[in-house]
Amino acid sequence: MTDDLDPLRQLRPDRLLSDDPVDPQILARERDRLMSTITGTSAGAANRRTPSIYPRLAYQDERAALEFLTRAFGFRERREARMEHPTGMLAWLEVGDGVVMIGRAGENLHGLHSPQESGQTTMMVNVYVDNVDAHYRKAKAEGARIVMDLEDMFWGDRRYEALDPEGHRWHFGERLSDIRSRGSDPDDQHRDPRMSELNQEKMMSAIEQAEPTTSNPPSGSPRILAHLIYDDVGSAIGWLTEVFGFGERTEARHVAGDGTIGRTQMHVADSLITIGEPSIHGDSPRRGVSSMLYVYVNDVGAHYRQAQAAGATVVTELDDRPWGDRCYQAIDPEGHQWTFAQHVRDVALGHDH
Predict the structure, then answer these.
(1) Are 269 and 330 within one domain?
(2) How far, in Å, CA of 228 to CA of 226, rounded?
(3) Is residue 158 part of a domain?
(4) Of 283, 169, 295, which is closest to residue 225 (Cα–Cα)?
């Protein structure tokens, strides 16, 4: 890599050893520490962490995608985290506390394809879990199709990849440093199994509070949610719970008049994903584009005007939705679907409104 940040990369702080993983959080922290040493000021309280779930999108031209996403949608690139390879570039974009990763499309790059190529999986969901070895054994025993076996990786993760019944690709990992810090080998089973339940209780408590004040995004929700499309949402809930150990955020379940589940949210640790039935938002990976990203912004009206002015193709106009959000939907140059929203009122979720 040869750009204006290259001299800074050569000034590696002593504590950042050469065998440390190329981790955006580590790089940001060490950059701030280095700059505080140079300027003689405090490093500050910046602690940008990577969420437990963050989406990765594949593009045939990832550099053009990076330019569009920062220009039209107002994302900020974690510039110190960018990775250049002969096979393409990896970049991390953020909005608030949400993070999305983009990279080159290709069969040899996790089997990810741009929506410009029909009939292929268009996104991979990355999930950090507390004990990846136990998670792997559970998923395998429950019939998950393992497409990359469990192994230690050079960037500092122990990971595996699996497909769910409809073809969504899931990448599960655990930091090797976390495994070492608890003083155990990868097969250690001693962790707190109540973590997911505790996080769910916190979210439910926040949502059920009596105060009428709304928050944006809604209480308990991250800034970026991956939205996955399933033909049978009810079956997907059961499979994701049994195989991957997710929990359903039942208060977010949306039930149609005929009793079918149209939409709900699943949680793992501090992150959420939304799953729903085929709609204008997308289709199952069995048929074309498989996902969309749902992003909360502070002023959706201004965001809508900015995106339109920058040339984004708006496919659903700005409007208030039954679940309390004001949102619009746009597609980027390669067909990924993005919904941008602002939470404007609290409503009781459940049956159709």
Answers:
(1) yes
(2) 6
(3) yes
(4) 295
Residue with more model confidence, 43 or 139: 139
User: Do the bridges between strand 98-104 and strand 53-59 make them parallel or antiparallel, or are there none, so unpaired?
Assistant: parallel
CA nearest to 75, candidates 301, 338, 343 = 338
Backbone angles phi and psi of 196, in degrees to 5: -60, -45
Which position has the higher pLDDT, 286 or 138? Answer: 138
Query: Please, are residues 112 and 56 in contact by the beta-carbon 8 Å criterion?
Result: yes
Domain assignment present for residue 79? The answer is yes
Give CA–CA dist 187/159, Å, rounded.
Answer: 13
Structure tokens at 120: 């292929």
8 A C-beta contact, residue 303 and residue 69: no
Minimum mean pLDDT range among 85-94, 152-161, 177-186, 319-328: 177-186
Contact between residue 347 and residue 353 where contact means Cβ atoms under 8 Å apart: yes
Q: How far apart are CA 205 and CA 181, in angstroms?
A: 32
DSSP 218: P
pTM exceeds cut of 0.70: no
250 lies in the same domain as 145: no
| Three-state secondary structure of 35-61 | HHHHHCCCCCCCCCCCCCEEEEEEECC
Q: Are strands 83-85 and 88-95 parallel, antiparallel or unpaired?
A: antiparallel
Same domain, 243 and 168: no
The number of domains in the chain is 2
Domain co-membership, 208 together with 151: no
From 153, 181, 209, give the residue that closes a domain.
Answer: 181
Residue 6 has pLDDT above 90, yes or no: no
Q: Is 329 left (phi over 0), alpha (psi -120 to 50) or beta?
A: beta
Bridge partners of residue 140, in order along the sequence: none
Identify whether 353 is part of a domain.
no
End-to-end Cα separation, the chain, in angstroms: 53
Q: Quote the domain boundaries for residue 59.
A: 53-181
Note the pLDDT tens digit of each residue in 116-141: 886 677 788 888 888 889 899 999 88
Q: Where does a domain end: 181, 212, 236?
A: 181
